[in-house]
Amino acid sequence: MKNTFSLDDMACFQAYRLHHAFGRYYQVVFAGTGLTYAKYVVLKALGEHGEMSLSDLSARLGVEPNTLSPLVKKMANYGVVERLRDPEDERRIVLRLASRGVTALREADAIIASGFRSLDLGEEEVAETIRRISSLRSAVERAANNDENVDLGKSS
User: Fold this and answer.
1) What structural domains and CATH numbers belong to the chain?
2) Cβ 89 vs Cβ 15: under 8 Å
3) Strand pairing of 52-53 and 81-86?
4) Residue 122 burial (CB < 10 Å; 0-12/13-18/19+)?
5) Low-confidence ranges of the chain (pLDDT < 70)
6) What's the pTM?
7) pLDDT tens-digit profile of 22-52?
C-alpha cells in the first residue's frame, strides 16, 4: 500500500460513510414503526440468542453496557424486551424478547428483506461483501489489540 492516498482510498473512511448511509437508510425503512437501528439490533440479538445478560448483549453488539442500558430500559417500558432477575444470581438481570418484541422483530425483518431487494444487489454479492467486511473488522480488531502494530508517531 502506498504511503499517500486520498480519503476515498481509505477503508476506514468508506466504512464511516457506509455507517452513516445505513443510518439514513434504516431511518427511512423504519419510519413509522418506532424502531431505530439500535433497537433493531437489540431485538435481533435477543431473537438469535434467547435470554442474555446485559453484559453478554453489549459484548455481542460491541458497545459498552452503560451505553446499552438506557436503551434496553426504554425497550422494556415499551413492552418489547423483558428484564428479569436471574434465579441463580439475583444481582444479575437477564433480558429476553417479550411477545411484542417477537412480533416487532418479525415485522422489522420483513421490512429489511423488502428494502434490501430494492438495492439491486444479488444475494451472493451481499454475502461476499459481509464476509469481506467481517474479515477486515477482525483484522483491525486484532491489530488494535496488538500494541506494536499501532504506531502513528513513526514514519516509514
Assistant:
1) 34-127 (1.10.10.10)
2) no
3) unpaired
4) exposed
5) 1-2, 147-156
6) 0.80
7) 999 999 889 988 899 999 999 999 999 999 9
